Amino acid sequence: MKFVVEHISKNSGRLGCLVHNESGKRYKTPLLLQVTKGGSIPYLSRDVFDRVTQDEQVLLLSLATMDHMSEAVMESKAAGINRLSTYIGFKDYLTFLTIRDPCEITPSRLNDKDMVPLFTRRGKIALTAQKYMDLVEIFKPDIYQSLNDADTNCQSAKKRVQKSVERTQQFMNYCCERQQQSPILKDSVFFASIVGGYNVQARSQSIKHIKTKSQCSGYIFEGFHNYGLTACKVSCDQLIPIVEHCMKELDFEKPKMLPGAYTPLVMLELIRLGVDMFDSSYAYCAAINFKALVFTYNKQKHVSEAKAEGPFIDITDECLKEEFVPLLEDCSCLACQQHTRAYMHHLYKTSELLGPILLIIHNLHHMMDFFATIRSTLLTNSLNDLIQLIKYQSGDKQVDYCITANTKVIKKEGLGKGFVNTKS
To answer: Coiled coil located at which positions (predicted)?
Structure first.
């Protein structure tokens, strides 16, 4: 696996490609990785996902949702299935293994000296560096991140931040040693985890240690939030100064990634700084909280034409029951081509499983098309114009893209069948 920078925009930001050495396939950056749960796109079968996009994607696999599959993966290798992507039904897709599920909030303050807590469907698991690398060798992803202590956020004390840096350095030393010695991982690459919360000095300390490791093929920023909806609350004012400082100290030619459900505006500001990779957890978090993404990123289409409905539509809104129009006009996704807002509202009211399926289809299509637009604006050096459009949507006030947790409740007999429901 190698990364190639193809174009540097005059307004900052860059276009590049992840190149798979074995197949020669190229994945354009800025890149949106597809979040999976247990190796599957949430709510979608492989056949349905192929109707969302025909392009091969990079899959983000989290150990938190896949640890229970390790024995089955070992048995599949004995049967001749050597690639993880083939085992999960996405043959020839690239796989990126991370530790935590970016769609779910990770509990805090449960750390021990030589382990990282992994919260799975089976409960909390103590993940040591040795156990982690054993699992990495079993799954054998194309890319994986180094083990890290990322239990920090904007409220973390300086002592907690310093501990996260020191423990991450300890874990990375072991990961690098295993990566270098393991014949199983000779075709896999790892991204070094940069930690340090919102402390500039701690981030620099983390980077200084990483730069002594020649095995590192890329960087992944951790420790800004606790994943899930907490990532939506991270503002540009908090995040950008820290990332901008770090970018000056990192190798330019290596790819950078920030996992989590960051808002579209934060993503754009990070892309302007040179971040290359994100994940689709924002689309998932919107869908399970009854939100259809409708923000416009087309500079030729004024927001006034789209009735200025805001960044998303809440399908629980009673006013939708008489709206027999698509979720978004001119959207070519399967949900918008065949169904209406009124029908989506009906699916919510009846707690039908088809509801979140259609919302995931629409939201993923919307985000993938958004990233295609980002790449085209970088090529024409017009990223600043796109940032202004996303920030204000042609209005006077800055748009709020933060997703709030659903607090509406439907009948008890419907719970668990379709949409996620949270009692208020």
So the answer is: none
| Residue 403 region by backbone torsions, left for phi larger than 0, else alpha for psi between -120 and 50, else beta | beta
Whether this prediction's pTM lies above 0.85 is answered by yes
| 87/72 Cα distance (integer angstroms) | 9
pLDDT tens for 129-179 read 999 999 999 999 999 999 999 999 999 999 999 999 999 999 999 999 999
**Would you say residue 56 lies in a domain?**
yes
Q: How far apart are CA 16 and CA 23, in angstroms?
A: 18
262 and 294 housed in the same domain: no
d(CA 270, CA 257): 10
SS3 content of the chain, % helix, strand, coil (to 5): 40, 15, 40
**Residue 347 CB neighbours (<10 A):** 21
Token code pair at residue 132: 């982690």
Question: How many domains is the chain built from?
Answer: 2
The whole-angstrom separation of Cα 421 and Cα 424 is 9
What is the C-alpha separation between 21 and 27, in angstroms, rounded?
Answer: 12
Q: Do 194 and 200 touch, CB atoms closer than 8 A?
A: no
The answer to the question of residue 421 being in a domain is no
Residues 200, 298 within the same domain: no
Residue type, 361: I
Nearest to 133 by CA among 196, 184, 91, 95: 184
Residue ranges at the known binding site: 331, 333, 336, 362
Place 361 in a pLDDT band, splitting at 50, 70 and 90.
Answer: very high
Point out the domain boundary residue: 286, 318, 348: 286
> pLDDT-derived band of residue 406, with 50, 70 and 90 as boundaries?
confident
Helices (H), 255-302: 264-273, 281-288
Q: Which residues contact 406 (CB under 8 A, 6 or more apart)?
A: 288, 289, 290, 316, 419, 420, 421, 422
Q: DSSP readout, 338-391? A: H--HHHHHHHHHTT-THHHHHHHHHHHHHHHHHHHHHHHHHHTT-HHHHHHHHH
Residue list, annotated binding site for Zn(2+) = 331, 333, 336, 362
Average pLDDT, the chain: 91
Distance of CA 187 to the CA centre of its chain: 24
Q: Do 312 and 338 fall within a single domain?
A: yes
Q: What is the reported pLDDT for 417?
A: 54
CA distance 90 to 34: 12
pLDDT range class, residue 419, cuts 50, 70, 90: low
